[in-house]
Design goal:
This protein has 100 residues and is α+β, with helices and mostly antiparallel strands. The chain contains three helices and four strands; from the N terminus they run E-E-E-H-E-H-H.
Length: 100
């Protein structure tokens, strides 16, 4: 698996290759990522890490996921109840998968 941008890493991902900053191994291979680990990596300026493949999922950041939702709802933008549903779907996505 190639390096994955930190903004695409979510809680529950598994580190494939040791995450090293300077001479220190922060998280060893096999570590299950928690949200607090992502926060630590951001504070230390880590931009990407190696993670195991997720079962049946593509890696995507929140922007790409929102674009997908927008395209799926594009044919019903003139219907207020469908627009409301589109925004609800975006909220669920952002909260359910640990996107920020």
């Amino acid at each position: 698996m190639p390096l994955v941008p930190l903004e695409s890493v979510v809680e529950g991902d598994v580190v494939k290759k040791d995450v090293i900053v300077g001479d220190v191994v922060l998280f060893g291979a096999g570590t299950v990522i928690a949200n607090k680990f992502i926060d630590i990596l951001k504070m230390l300026g880590v931009r990407e890490i190696n993670v195991e493949n997720r079962e049946g999922e593509k890696f995507r950041n929140l922007k790409e996921a929102y674009e997908n939702i927008d395209s799926r709802f594009s044919y019903v933008d003139d219907k207020p109840h469908m627009t409301a549903l589109k925004y609800m779907a975006k909220d669920v996505l952002a909260n359910a998968r640990g996107y920020r």
